[in-house]
Amino acid sequence: MNLDDDLIAIKGIGKKKYKLLNNLNLYKVKDLLTNFPRTYVDRSKVNNINEIENESISTIKLLIYDVSETKNAYKKSTLRLKCKDTNGYNVAIIFFNASFLLKKFSIGKEYYFYGKIVKTHYEAKMFHPEFSDSMYNDKKFLRIEPIYSLTAGITNKEMINIYENIIDNVLFEENLFSPYIIQNKLCDINYAFKNINLPTSKEALKKARYRFIYEEFFNLFLSLSLIKNKVKSSGGIVLKDLPMVDFYKNLKFTLTKSQEKVWNQIKIDLTSNNQMNRLLQGDVGSGKTIVAMMAMYLTYKNNMQSTLMVPTSVLANQHFRTFSDVLKNFNIKIILLTGNTKNKKQIYKDIELGKYDIIIGTHAILEEGVKFKNLALVITDEQHRFGVKQRNILSTKEKNVNVLVMSATPIPRTLSLIIYGDVDISVIDQLPSGRKQIKTHYVKKNKINDMYEFIRSKVEEKRQIYFICPLIEESEALDIKSASELYKELSERIYTKFNVKLLHGKMKAKEKETIMKDFSEGKINILISTTVIEVGINVPNASIMVINDANRFGLSQLHQLRGRVGRGEYQSYCFMTSNKMGDTSKKRIQTMIDTNDGFEIAERDLLLRGPGEILGLKQHGLPELKIGELAKHSQIFEIVKMDVNNLVQMYNQGEKASVEFIIKFIENRLSNNINI
Ligand code: ADP
Ligand code: MG
After folding, report:
1. Which residue's CA is the nearest one to ligand 1's atom 26?
2. Over 80: is that where the pLDDT of 295 sits?
3. From edge to edge, which strands make up the β-sheet containing 402-407?
4. Which of 129, 315, 509, 606 has the fewest Cβ atoms within 10 angstroms?
5. pTM to 2 decimal places
6. 614 C-alpha to ligand 1 centroid (Å)
7. Which domains are present in the chain?
């Protein structure tokens, strides 16, 4: 039997079963064996009743001494087996409406039962347990049984039979680097496949799982290392460490200790021969922009160019305004480049001639026509909103360019390694002084009017307000109050005397810019918006964020939205409303109420969503993790990381075994259409 054999060729799999297996995406022997069990039922350990805790699940061995069946007035039957365990402990096994089981049990014989034990004063009970009847011999019953994902028409027992038919008749070729198998005491590939599907013991299952987790991380991390290797260059552009006194003098505030710390880390990168590849993390409102500006200012002083790329044109405009304003006393030439920038040809020419020092924009910066005179630094803000490809283009466009990526979404070290490769990380872990905790509340329907009144009082104190809705117009989901509908209600009915404006993604860019400008200048009291303002927007006078239909948003999005307020000296508030609440949305909203800490929120998000979705591995053409969990198995990940790094290093030095291994690895991946 071969791994590539079609399942239809297997004894016991007819056309009908084959179709059903296809429904589960199983076509070949290989598919079947790599389709790991969803979970396991461990019946292998037989316990004595007195050792078992009440309500726990266990296997016990019992002797039946009486069998009886009673029927009630509605003809419902109760089958009761009176049993004793080896210590004479009384146990009743009870089945409802299961007359067909009567013939399976004989008085005076011993059986194994597996289920939940309920203990009372004088006896123990088990309802509808699994039991060792003729279907099982004892050996089959007393084992760890795999539980597979099923489709209607196939039972778990049938699945197990198929695996049992196959497992001893195929051979996998070892696909890990053999020195690492020995070094990490990993089990052999065939042992692993056998024991992950049909474990012979708990220890064997553990060994098998460990190997597959290692293997999954190894393949993923090696792929990523090879991708990274392609774009890696040697030394970086070196800037002179020129004094920044004039910049500091010009600042309206003092940097926080944390900002100073990360600025120093960045400066060391920029002024050394190392090409900077750094991720700057800092919670919403922690003041990342100013740090970026300092790096760009130092680049300017070195007579070189830098770019700042952001995911939305609204944010690009804001950064452009901020930079132009803060740097107005210097002779720095700044240009904005977005999708709807006019006169692009001229601007491209001027950038290439070096007439601009700082280029701020959206991914329009990546367009082919854009060439630089002497680009030394590339910064992307709100990094998590960009795809892998966009991220790589900029850093490959110019050789040796220093790269800084900024993100408010803190991610565990293991995840960042996967997403960014081996970057250095700087963290701003402190908010500017004087900030007050944002007060976060869930507002019930009958309290909405109170909220409206509270908001009115704040507008009268000259504060500004955001209302966020998930959709622009009435959609098929009628329960969603769209932004335009809410706009109508608020502007025509509730806040007739205030300046209320609507902002959404489908508006023309110019229109959006004007509204955001007016809002940041305090001309608009209340802004109703879709999530176009989710990332990066900074209007410190805004102090209330109302998120409607909060159940529609993910946790990190909610935190980003809330981060639009609390950016100045005023006490700020975040109110969430929602018509419907599932369990997960309840957890998300509770998390928001519980904490303001972006790191903690990211961690809980990871637990709620799982890393696969956050990473979007599939989207990037990389295999999904089936068994490894980055959050849970970070220790294994650390080992893999070291192993892969060593392997790549040996490969770079031309060491024979590692070169052979990597060539085979690449061929294998390519023939399986896996991105590398
Ligand atoms: P984010 O990290 O979310 O991008 P910003 O860079 O937009 O945050 O900064 C948020 C606000 O805090 C801005 O108005 C900025 O001017 C202000 N700010 C930044 N650093 C400081 C500081 N050290 N002291 C006072 N205010 C600061
Ligand atoms: Mg920002």
Report:
1. 432
2. yes
3. 334-337, 358-361, 305-309, 375-380, 402-407, 277-282, 424-428
4. 509
5. 0.64
6. 27
7. 1-43+147-170 (no CATH), 45-142 (2.40.50.140), 245-428 (3.40.50.300), 439-595 (3.40.50.300)
